[in-house]
Every structure is written in C-alpha cells, then in structure tokens.
Amino acid sequence: MVVTQSRPNAFPSALKQKHTTGQNLAIEDIGGRAQLETPCPQCDHPVMNFTTVQLRSADEGATVFYTCPNCNYRYSTNN
C-alpha cells in the first residue's frame, strides 16, 4: 500500500487566490452616513447618524451602525 500526502498549497487555485474571506473596515472608513430622527440612548440627542454594511451572507440582513453626532456614542444592530 502506498500513502501519499500533499500540502494545501501544493496545488494552487487561481479562484482561491482571488477569494478573500472578509474586509477589515473601521466604521470611520465607511462613507455615506445618513441621519435618523431617533434619540441617542446615552445623551438623548434627537438625531443619530447611521450607515449599513453587508457583513454577513447575501441572504441575511445588513448590519446597521449608529453614531451620535453629539456624544459620539456608537452601537450596531443586525437586521
């Protein structure tokens, strides 16, 4: 009986080399903030900035990042 072994990088795939598992984005790097008339949970400022990002698979909802322009309080929700 002959047993052979190979390393995972022994047969490189062009598709695997192009594939990335994710992006490292800071909330500040994501442009296009919109405003929502809802009070800040921390300081009760009447308006919150928000942006949405698709962090999970396409068949799941986007993640919404909220930032208070007054006290810079931040939180996120998954839709």
Automatic annotation (TrEMBL):
SMART domains: ZnF_C2C2
Subcellular location per the Swiss-Prot or TrEMBL entry: Nucleus, Nucleolus
Annotated GO biological process: termination of RNA polymerase I transcription
Keyword Chaperone listed: no
GO cellular component: RNA polymerase I complex
InterPro entries xrefs: Rpa12/Rpb9/Rpc10/TFS, Zn_ribbon_RPA12_C, Znf_TFIIS
Domain annotation TFIIS-type: ranges: 36-76
Entry-linked PANTHER family: DNA-DIRECTED RNA POLYMERASE, DNA-DIRECTED RNA POLYMERASE I SUBUNIT RPA12
Name under which the protein is recorded: DNA-directed RNA polymerase I subunit RPA12
Species this chain originates from: Drechslerella stenobrocha 248
